[in-house]
Amino acid sequence: MFKRLTKLRLLMVSVVLTVACSNDAELADITSVSSADDVFLRSDSRLIKGVVPRRATLAGIFNEHELKGGVATRIIEAVRSVFDPRRIRAGNAYQLVFTADGSLRRFEYHVDNDQFLQVRNRTGTGSIFDAELIPYVKERIKIAMRGFIDPEHTSLVGALNGGGENVMLGIKMAEVFSGEIDFNNELRLGDRFDVLFEKYFREGEFAGYGDVVAAEFVNKGRQVHAFRFTVPGDDEALYYDDQGRSLKRLFLRSPFRFEPRVTSRFSFRRLHPVLGVHRPHLGVDYGAPTGTPVIAVATGQVVSAGRSGGSGNMVRLRHTNGYETYYLHLSAFAEGVRSGARVVQGQVIGRVGATGLATGPHLDYRMRKNGEFVNPLLEHRKLPPGDPVPEQYLEAFYATRDQTREQMLSATASLSKTGTLAQ
C-alpha cells in the first residue's frame, strides 16, 4: 500500500489505528474456485458473489439463487429491522454462503463505504435469521500534499488530480475556504497550496476522504490559513485562520459545494437569452449539469418552494438581518423543503434544472437585503465572519495550530514542485 501511495504522489504523515472492526474467519477456508461467482469452501460451505443488477429487488436476488417462499420472506423481514430493502443499489456487491444441504448460512450486502448489511442463520435450519449493519474495518491516514496553479493545472481540481487526488478533496477544500477564496474566478497562475488531510482505506483500497486538518493557500500573493479546531464544550469542529479568527461567514460564497462556473452576472441591463430583450438580471447564473445539488447559503426558513412563472421551480429562504435568497430553475426540490421548514447552512434544498424561461440547465441565484436585490458576489465580501476562538481557549488553539502546521510543512518541504517525493 505504501508503494501505491508514493506512486500517487502523496506523502504519508501518520497512521491512526483501525476505526471499526468485524470478525469473520468463516471464509478463511476457501480452497478452490470454480468461477468468479461461485466459490467452494473446504468442509460444508459454498460462497456465491454477485453485483446487484439494474432494477433488481432483494426478493429477485434471492429468487435467482433459489431462495424461495418462506425462507426469502423471513430473510427480508429480518433485513427490514435494520435496513430498508428498497434502498439496495445497482452495482453494489453482495454474497451468499450456503451449507452443504443448500441452506443459507449468511448473506452480506455492501451498503456504502462505511458499512455492510449482514444476515445470519441463527439456528442452521433456515427458520430464524438475524440482521445487522456492521462497520467496515478502515485505516485512517493523514497525508500532506502540495499543489500549484500553473499552465498545466489551471484549477484546484486540476492541481489535485496532478497530485493523485480527486474532486471530492477539492470540494472539502472549497468548503473550508468558501468565505475567503472564489475558486472559480480568483485563482491565478502561480497560486499554490499545502494541505494536510485524512484519507480512509478499506482492505488496502481508497474508501473516501476524512477531514481537512490544516491548509495554507497562497492566492494572488495573499496567504490564507485554515486550521481545524474544536472549542471545548462545542459539538462541532470549525476552521480558523492562524490568529484564531473564524473562516465561516454568515453566508457561503455560492450555493454549491464546489465553486461552479459563472455564466451570467448581476446586471440592471442584460439581454435576456430567451425573450431577446434587455432587462435587469438581479442575480448570478451558475452553469452546472442537471441534478447538481444546490445548498442553502445560510441558515434560515423556507418562505416558499414551488413553481414561480418564468423562474420555474424556485426556493425562497429568509435569513437573519433582513436577508433573503432565491434559487431559480430547479429540476427538483429536496425532501422536506416546504414553506415554513427550517434549513441549515450547507443543506441540500434542490437540484439544478432548466425549468421556466431557461435555455439550458443552470441555477439563477439571487439575494435580497431589506427588500432590495443586491449583487451576491459583492455583498458576500461585506458580511462579517463567525465568532473567533474564545480568548480563554486561544492557548490550546495555538498549540493545535503549531502542531498541525509543522506536520504539514515538514512533509511538503520534501516535495518537489510537481508534488512528487523529492529525490
Quick overview of this protein structure:
The chain has helices spanning 2-7, 58-64, 69-80, 156-162, 167-176, 376-382, 394-412; strands spanning 11-16, 30-33, 38-41, 45-51, 93-99, 104-110, 115-121, 129-135, 139-148, 192-202, 205-219, 222-229, 238-240, 261-264, 267-271, 278-281, 284-287, 293-295, 300-307, 313-318, 323-333, 342-343, 348-352, 362-369, 372-374. With 423 residues, it is an alpha+beta fold. The longest helix is centred in the C-terminal third of the chain and has 19 residues, at 394-412.
Give a verbal description of the structure.
It is a single chain. The chain is an alpha+beta fold. The protein folds into three domains: 116 residues, Nuclear Transport Factor 2, Chain: A (Roll); 134 residues, Roll (Nuclear Transport Factor 2, Chain: A), CATH 3.10.450.350; 122 residues, Glucose Permease (Domain IIA), CATH 2.70.70. The chain contains seven helices and 25 strands. The strands form four sheets. Strands 14, 17, 18, 19, 20, 21, 22, 23, 24 and 25 form a ten-stranded antiparallel sheet that branches. Strands 2-3-4-5-6-7-8 form a seven-stranded antiparallel sheet. It is globular and about 70 Å long. The N terminus is likely disordered.
CATH architecture term of the largest domain: Roll
| Class of secondary structure makeup | alpha+beta
Cα-based radius of gyration, to the nearest Å: 26 Å
Profile the largest sheet: 10 strands, antiparallel
Unreliable parts? 1-42
Coarse shape: globular
Number of domains: 3
Number of strands: 25
Mean pLDDT, rounded to whole units? 82
Strand content: 35-45%
Give the count of helical stretches.
7
